[in-house]
Design brief:
Elements (H helix, E strand, L loop, with lengths): L4 H10 L9 H19 L30 H5 L5 E2 L2 E2 L7
Antiparallel strand pairs: 1-2
Helix pairs in contact: 1-2
Length: about 100
C-alpha cells in the first residue's frame, strides 16, 4: 500500500496536526514503509499459534491480597472542613 502526499495531508488535517510542507514526502515514505511491514506481518501463517498476553511469556508476581494498614479514616478526616457518612464533602463545581 502506497501512501501519497495528499493522504498525509488529509490525515494531518483530521488529526489536527501541523506538518511542514517539506516534511510531507518524508511522512508519506515512512507511513508507506510501516504499512508494508504490517502487510508482511499479515502474510505470516499463524494457524495453531496461541495468542500471548506478553511476548516474554512471564508470570507476574502478585502480592497477597491482605490488609497491610489499619483504618485511619477518623484521623485523616479530623481536619476536613465538612464530612458526611465518612466521606469528604466538597463544593459543587458543575451546575
Amino acid at each position: 500500500m502506497s501512501i501519497q502526499s495528499e493522504d498525509v495531508l488529509k490525515i494531518a488535517h483530521l488529526a489536527r496536526l501541523g506538518i511542514q510542507d517539506e516534511q510531507v514526502e518524508s511522512y508519506a515514505s515512512d507511513l508507506t514503509n510501516i504499512m508494508g511491514l504490517v502487510e508482511q506481518m499479515n502474510q505470516v501463517d499463524t494457524t495453531g499459534i496461541e495468542p500471548m498476553a506478553h511476548p516474554l511469556d512471564q508470570v507476574q508476581r502478585l502480592r497477597p491480597d491482605v490488609v497491610s494498614e489499619k483504618n485511619q479514616r477518623e484521623a485523616l478526616q479530623k481536619n476536613a472542613p465538612d464530612i458526611q457518612d465518612g466521606l469528604f464533602l466538597v463544593p459543587r463545581v458543575i451546575e
